[in-house]
Amino acid sequence: MSLEFSVTRPCRLGNVPQWDMETDVVVVGFGAAGACAAIEAAQAGAVVTLFEVASGSGGTSALSGGEIYLGGGGGTPAQQQAGFVDDTEDLYRYLLMAGGPDADEPKVRTYADGSRAHYDWLVEQGLTYKNTYLPERMLEPETDDCLIWSGSEEAWPFSGNAKPCPRGHTPQWAGWGGGRMLMDVLAARVVKLGVDVRYDSRVLALIADKANNVHGVVVRINGQTRYARARSGVVLCAGGFVMNRDMVRRHAPGLLRANEPIGSPGDDGSGILMGISVGGAAIHMDQGFVSLPFYAPESLIKGVFVNERGQRFINEDCYHGRIGHHIMQQLGDRIYLLVDSATYQQPAEFTRIGIAAAGDTWEEVEHDLGMPAGTLSATVSNYNRHAADGADPLFHKAAKWLKPLDEPPFVALDCRVDYAFYPHFTLGGLDTLPTGQVLSEKRVPIHGLYAAGRTSCGLPRWGGGYSSGMSLADATFFGRQAGRHAAASACRS
Amino acid sequence: MSLEFSVTRPCRLGNVPQWDMETDVVVVGFGAAGACAAIEAAQAGAVVTLFEVASGSGGTSALSGGEIYLGGGGGTPAQQQAGFVDDTEDLYRYLLMAGGPDADEPKVRTYADGSRAHYDWLVEQGLTYKNTYLPERMLEPETDDCLIWSGSEEAWPFSGNAKPCPRGHTPQWAGWGGGRMLMDVLAARVVKLGVDVRYDSRVLALIADKANNVHGVVVRINGQTRYARARSGVVLCAGGFVMNRDMVRRHAPGLLRANEPIGSPGDDGSGILMGISVGGAAIHMDQGFVSLPFYAPESLIKGVFVNERGQRFINEDCYHGRIGHHIMQQLGDRIYLLVDSATYQQPAEFTRIGIAAAGDTWEEVEHDLGMPAGTLSATVSNYNRHAADGADPLFHKAAKWLKPLDEPPFVALDCRVDYAFYPHFTLGGLDTLPTGQVLSEKRVPIHGLYAAGRTSCGLPRWGGGYSSGMSLADATFFGRQAGRHAAASACRS
């Protein structure tokens, strides 16, 4: 009998011919969330099997900078050494605001309370942090330093809501790409704890009974279909759906304007679809991270973004992902960053930000861009007048970034949506409790099913509030909760 | 044995104790979509049972103006009498653009080709249209006239894409509220065709086999739980989810800024949730119609909308729902409509649009609104300069609405998002084929399940493209397709 399996339809328990494998906890996906889930479950005494579709560990986490958004509890060693006292309530207020109009308060509370200890846990796993602080605004340290400003903490409106503190923690690793090192450390722990790791193993479907309680997975290993029983729980850590362009079109078509999906091939939505197949609710599926990583050089933050009508639309000192979020909401694809000779520095080559126009007056630049007289030039004139007083009454950009753009020549940098580098990934996913339990539309937990990382809708769920390190913070922390909870369920059964 | 049912979980076929009722086609919901589905199914010879949770017909359709977006094929009688030739391809291009970044091309094609004949069908059901044309811009006729401009056809960017034509058809009914009459006519047809209509009947869950093929519904009638078999299909026409504020929060939190949900209590998402429960995909769940119905009086269209930074953001001559869509994307809740003494007329009382500031110069108004000098006043100054030449280089407002706002006193009308009247409803729902068949995430039809109206994601699926009458057009037309297809399935079985 040939059975076809689909991530959109569970295999019913009655159709399982035999259990080819039995374990307590099945973890699907070997990115950061899956690794942390496996570590906690194994440490709690559960037998853990981890299926990864690729031939090695890492997932999309290994493609990242390895930066994790951490703080609270008075501060991590890096924060303290740099002179910051990071109060848990400030972290809580920042994350709540960053969660947008439907922030997940219980998760924010749990993470704010537990973030400081999570730092210690990461160190216990073998990660090292140099405990140094780089005050300049950047995407990631080019060195092996640790702490940076990685969000909109110092920018309006966040700055008025929570005392700003830098919280981006990058492990000690020279240059970009610390995510690979992060994953190697976590993967080594997973192996050391005796987790049964199966690579080249594609999970095809969940196995569920009629009431949609989850009992295991159908998995394809070496061309063979295997039925794996999970006595206590399946933890879906299979990434988001940015690589499934059909799903993006149907759920998050606004992201189609951005041109660079960030992810690994595994970010095909299969984890989310499996959760839906047994009644899980996928929420905020329209939301994504979209960025224009225009700094460093940080002097460009002193520039002014305008849309194709010469209008400002954002305080330029907020996080580049918040700026990307607002760029996507502008009518028209032409976006410019205006700078003068004192603030101009060449943007990083990979950003594909070139020069659209230059002139000795802003009127000349305005004219060269084909904008009506009195649009861009009036915007700059207004900006300059107030910047000279250290004020930005329209967008409340912080004083340290305010400088009149009055030193010719003047330049409009070309940040066209259809040409410049706009990386993006998805933030929508399965609704979960802080324990990782997947919830139905009525918010009832689905027995035996957990999710973490971008398969779930976690702390980051609103493009306007994303900060670097937030997705890894969510994946590692709530991956741990899911693994621990699934293991506890194992001990009870 | 007490069984608990949930719209989020199908009742499995094996758990059905007996069939209390048997029919060919079950229709859930007696709004426009359900009525049209029932009519077509019955006319095709199927035995039809319609369950409605309320005590009478109508649903949300009966709360509307009864206006239907119709045209193509050279024009309806009303269009032709008014001198318009409405080419099918213009209707097609308009609807495709109005569908936004993931327009449903097959549905747009089907509707454009079939809209003209759909008009005849509506007349055959007993609706009467006066075939008169009102050229003024309005929400609905206050008289029993028929044809109005009900979308953004004449406005940029739609006007450059398809030859404009008015397509809002209101049945002959004196004053607002033609939706009640529309539904009475359709309901009379339903009854005349022998459809078994059951009021006060709440469908609790779908009945499905292990492969999620749908076989019927569990329904609560007079306090009794009944198992109703649908030999060939269940058609979900149970409305949208705007009244389920938890669902709105998790899927469309952007709509929470609007303050007036438009719907009946039945718009609780139950139809969508039942579809999801058997593997149906819900798409574009973030999208909604949000309006600021600021005209009539149409002279207000000659005004200028600005956000709280004094910036324009839209051509004011587009449909009020498109303006509402863009208002929701502005930072900040303060929105003003600027008019001068020549263009000012009092907005309708129900809009709660009052006067925020007035002055003899725009600088005075700007100051009174607390805006920095040179913001609002520069916006108006630029606008006026070009309007005097009949041009709007920034937003391409059509010449007929362009008039310099230069006759004092000047007025800023207060359209605050947190106070003025912002009606809204949801546009996301189940993905369907033009036949009404509900699709999985992989776009595979779910056997025995159909959806229409706002339970489905139809022609209207993007807030920026909504036009009055589009939802009823979609509900009536694709309700018919669903009923016909389900009945054909009955004949085959």
List the helices and strands and how they pair.
Two copies of one chain form a homodimer.
Chain A: E1 11-12, E2 21-28, H1 32-43, E3 48-51, E4 68-69, H2 77-81, H3 88-98, H4 105-125, E5 147-148, E6 168-169, H5 178-192, E7 196-198, E8 201-208, E9 214-221, E10 224-236, H6 245-251, E11 260-261, H7 270-277, E12 282-283, E13 288-290, E14 304-306, H8 320-327, E15 336-339, E16 354-359, H9 362-368, H10 376-387, E17 410-414, E18 423-426, E19 429-430, E20 437-439, E21 445-451, H11 470-492
Helix pairs in contact in A: 1-5, 1-11, 3-4, 4-11
Please describe what this structure looks like:
Two copies of one chain form a homodimer. The first copy, chain A, contains eleven helices and 21 strands. Chain A is an alpha/beta fold and 493 residues long. Chain A has three domains: 11-63 and 179-289 and 424-492, FAD/NAD(P)-binding domain, CATH 3.50.50; 68-176, no CATH class; 294-414, Alpha-Beta Complex (Flavocytochrome C3, Chain A, domain 1). In chain A, strands 1, 2, 3, 7, 8, 9, 10, 20 and 21 form a nine-stranded mixed β-sheet that branches. In chain A, strands 14-15-17-16 form a four-stranded antiparallel β-sheet, covered by helices on one side. In chain A, strand 8 (201-208) and strand 9 (214-221) form a beta hairpin. In chain A, helix 1 (32-43) runs parallel beside helix 11 and helix 4 (105-125) crosses helix 11 (470-492). The longest helix of chain A is centred in the C-terminal third of the chain and has 23 residues, at 470-492.
